[in-house]
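Problem 12. The chain below contains 221 residues. Write out its predicted structure in token notation.
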Amino acid sequence: MDWEYEELFEAFNEDYMNYRSENFSPWESLARTWGEYENVINRGEMEKAVIYVAYGEKLLLQEKIFTNAKKLTLDALNTLDLAKLQSVLDEEQMEELLARRSKVLEQLESKPLDQYPVARWYYREITEEVVDFINKKLQEAGSNDLVSVVLKRFERDCKNTIGENIIIKTTLIESLMGKVTEKEKLEPIVKELKEFKVDELGQQLSEDEKKDLLLRIKACI
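Solution.
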């Protein structure tokens, strides 16, 4: 199909938000959206420019940026053929596109880099996501079996990386200690946290995040 300038921006952003609404992490939502539009880039300079700008804008929302994603985006935006763009965009569109490109180029340079390539929740993000989910469930009338409910909601994330698994279960213990009657369901999780070795994380977390996680684990086991 042939894309219009505004339509392509809207479609990319809408698909990204659809993945977010399905409980994918920001990074995984962006990776999946990118996969859907990767071939669109080859249809023309306008399509290439819009996809990379839209992708870059979403990268700016993340806590960290995977090294290769940053290089790919910077290289693409710095080598756009402006003459080709001027031939297919009107003056207002061209001005807007260049302004958005400049913002991405400028702000990407200052974003912290992520050396671990797997799309995943970041430390603060997943902690807040679990806390928010648990608080909502605690407020629901007749809410029960919270341990199973939380583990079911984050089942895919727990399988994705060791880091996500341990952060989710640490936050679960922190949030539900003293608030649930089915304490026996927490016992296997406590056992898992006791057996966890921080070296298993590799580059999934920063050194500061690892130290904080270990303190949290110590406090709840």
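Discussion. The longest strand covers residues 65-66. Students who got a different answer should revisit the alignment rule from Section 12.3.
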